[in-house]
C-alpha cells in the first residue's frame, strides 16, 4: 500500500494551532444569469427554509427568501469534446483563481469533492502549473468525505493525495482532513469547529451576504442521480440551513457514513465549479441546465455561488442540452 502523507487532522485540541496552457479547441461557453428554466424559483446562497422532500412545490416555500439575491450568481456553461480537454481547461481555471486570491488575500482556500473530479485536476501536477502555482498559499479542504481511515480505498483524502497532493508542495499543515478516529456525527462536528477557528483567523473568508464561510473555490462533481457532495436526492440533509457541516449514516452509495458541507456553505463560495463527464450523466445535466419540466428538484439544481458558478461539461455530459 502506498504511503499517505499525514495531513492536519482536525480536532478541538488543534483548533488554535491550525495554521498557460489552453485547449486547442475553444469551448462553447454559455452565460446564465438566472436560475435554470426548469426551476420554479431563483436559487441563491442563503439560509433558505427548504422542506423535505425537495420538489418543485416544496422548494417554492424558499422563493421569498431567495428573491433578495436572485440573479446575482452568474452561471457559465463550458462545453468540450473530451474529458481531456475538460482537464486542461480546469487546470488553467483553478490556477488563475489561485493567483487571483493569493494576490487579493494572501491565501487560496479550495474544497475538493471526490470521484472523477479529482482525476480532472491531474493537469495541475504538470507544467507549467507545478512550478508556477503558489502551492504554499493553498489551504485544502474536503466538501465531503467518507468516514473511513485515510488509507482506505474509499477515502476521498487518499484519492486526492494519490492524484494531486503527493505531487505538489502544499504544506501538510494546510491540508485539512477529517478526524477519522471519530464517528460520522463526531467527525462532522469536529470539522465544523475547526473551520470556525480558521474563519476566526481569517484563513477562510466570511460571506457578508450569508454569514457562512466563503471558500475561494469549491470543486464539485455530480452523480448520475444529480447528487453533489454527499447531498442525495430526497435526503433531509439537503434541507439543512444552519449547520456548516453535517453527517449522514444512510448514504445510498457505499460507504454509508459520510460528512458533507451543507448547501448554505457550498453556495456561499466565491466560485463553484461543477465538473461533469460522461453520457450517463446527461439526463441530470439536462434537468439542471435544460428545459426539463420534471416536478422534483435534484440537489444539483440548488447549486449556486456568490460570484460565479461554472459548469465544465464534456460532449457526453452535454449531449442532451
From TrEMBL:
Record's catalysed reaction(s): 6-phospho-D-glucono-1,5-lactone + H2O = 6-phospho-D-gluconate + H(+)
GO MF term list: 6-phosphogluconolactonase activity
Superkingdom of origin: Eukaryota
GO process annotations (BP): carbohydrate metabolic process; pentose-phosphate shunt
Pathway(s) of this molecule: Carbohydrate degradation; pentose phosphate pathway; D-ribulose 5-phosphate from D-glucose 6-phosphate (oxidative stage): step 2/3
Keyword set includes Hydrolase: yes
Any Pfam family hit: Glucosamine_iso
Keywords, in A-Z order: Hydrolase
Keyword Hydrolase assigned: yes
Similarity annotation: Belongs to the glucosamine/galactosamine-6-phosphate isomerase family. 6-phosphogluconolactonase subfamily.
Protein name: Probable 6-phosphogluconolactonase
Source organism of this protein record: Malus baccata (Siberian crab apple)
